[in-house]
Amino acid sequence: MKETVLGIKVNTENYDELIEEIFNRIEKKEKSLIVAINPEKIIKAKEDPALKKLLNEAEFQIPDGIGVILASKIQKGQITERVTGVDMMMRLCAESAKHQKPIFLYGGKPGVAEKAAAKLKELYPTIRVAGTQDGYEKDNEKVLSKINEAKPDILFVAMGSPKQENWINANRDKLHPTIYQGVGGSFDVLAGNVKRAPEAFQKVGMEWFYRLMKEPKRIKRQIALPLFLLEVARGSKRK
Prior knowledge:
This protein is α/β, with parallel strands linked by helices. The chain contains twelve helices and eight strands. A six-stranded parallel β-sheet has the order 4-3-8-7-5-6, sandwiched between helices. A two-stranded antiparallel sheet has the order 1-2.
């Protein structure tokens, strides 16, 4: 099920429900893109028709950001929990290890994807990492060939959004994988180059506040959240 937040579709299911649906799609070979939706992207999509189209045409739009949960509450919707990009990646890896569905990591600086793969093998000893490729290879055909030769079921692409989703959409018809997820800086988190917020912050949806304390210059981005919620509230009153 999906609901719409300021013109952008968002899935209402929790992790378990989404994982089940995603792995059903692998069995049916139904190619699918997973995009993470947060208030910042929704606001940008209002001004950028290409971004709006990209987000709405994805097969899965996960509610990554406490702002999306609050927006759903304001409009009396069905989204009750966050489904973050990095946690979705980890859930997919755990499930792929159980079912022996190979994965491939593409993107990041040289060496980062390999380190991330090593960490995944440590966390999930039965995981099948079919291959890795850094994001600095200029020859796109070479990248496509490497992925296709590895024959993964799931491809994680770390290039930053929306570049990673645009790359997926431009190439997925030529690629072997069934499931595609743009994962931003998740390889750096797995490789140990970037630290996530402590679990206490994650559990209450306050990762944004932890990042703000670490990087005060993010304040301009965070000011957008109350404006976003105000717009959602106005929209729900007009209905």
